[in-house]
Design a protein that fits this description.
single chain, alpha/beta, Pyruvate Kinase, Chain: A, domain 1, YojJ-like (1, seven-stranded mixed beta sheet, five-stranded mixed beta sheet, binds adenosine-5'-triphosphate, binds manganese (II) ion, ATP-binding
Amino acid sequence: MAGLDDVFGELFQGVDAAILFSPSGSYYERCASIEDLDLIVIGTENTVGAETFVELPLAFDDIRDRIKFGLEGAIEQDLIEDGDELACATSVFSDGIDTVSRVRADAETRTGIYDLFVKSRAEPEVVKAVLELAVELGKKGQKGKPVGALFVVGDAGKVMNKSRPLSYNPFEKSHVHVGDPIVNVMLKEFSRLDGAFIISDAGKIVSAYRYLEPSAEGVDIPKGLGARHMAGGAITRDTNAITIVLSESDGLVRAFKAGELILEVDPEAY
Ligand SMILES: Nc1ncnc2c1ncn2[C@@H]1O[C@H](COP(=O)(O)OP(=O)(O)OP(=O)(O)O)[C@@H](O)[C@H]1O
Ligand SMILES: [Mn+2]
């Protein structure tokens, strides 16, 4: 007579690798002791000291995003390849791992999120800090009201050349960096103001209040998005910057690189 093991067991029969999303230490140890198993850990931090690890920029509440972006990172790092069958173990309803999904790696549905972090001019930590800031700002708004914001990250010299000041730059003579708690408070305060924030590769706030003037010719951003997103998308084609845009009207955070929309997340999900 067949048991549930036989039926659910098919989920991980003949897989090329097992992928654990943010496992606990003991869970990881148990899997690591299985012979001949290719094991990959994916998460925002390698808390279990896994040998093979892929870093996620965000925890991704949506399980499909989590797996999709995680597998994309694993493909980029040559840990898995197109067509590999994978048992992805993750938590959905609890803190511990409670779900296994069988997924086939698909190199074609590449979103470019790995390029955003790893292959940008700006340091990955800087991109991550700005993304977190935008998500936080989107969640809380400014004194309870929704706010929009546009952060241009990296290649600041060129970005400055393709923009002009809307008002005096409050960061003119300062040497402050993103990720600094006090700076995050300042950036949130200034997000009420018009224009864009310009941030250097290393995370220095170069300017606030910048009006971007990229050439928008041929830039293809989703219909319905306005001037902030158009300028935010276009400047990434004219320069090697990436942009992170918080929409005041739909509340989503989007990232652009090389003129393309790469990432769209709902801050409420984090
Ligand atoms: N070229 C630009 N450079 C910098 N900031 C801009 C630019 N164009 C618009 N903005 C900023 O974006 C704000 C919102 O503009 P708009 O509503 O057209 O954009 P949007 O893409 O619809 O964004 P949202 O979804 O937040 O409404 C403006 O008030 C301005 O502060
Ligand atoms: Mn608008």
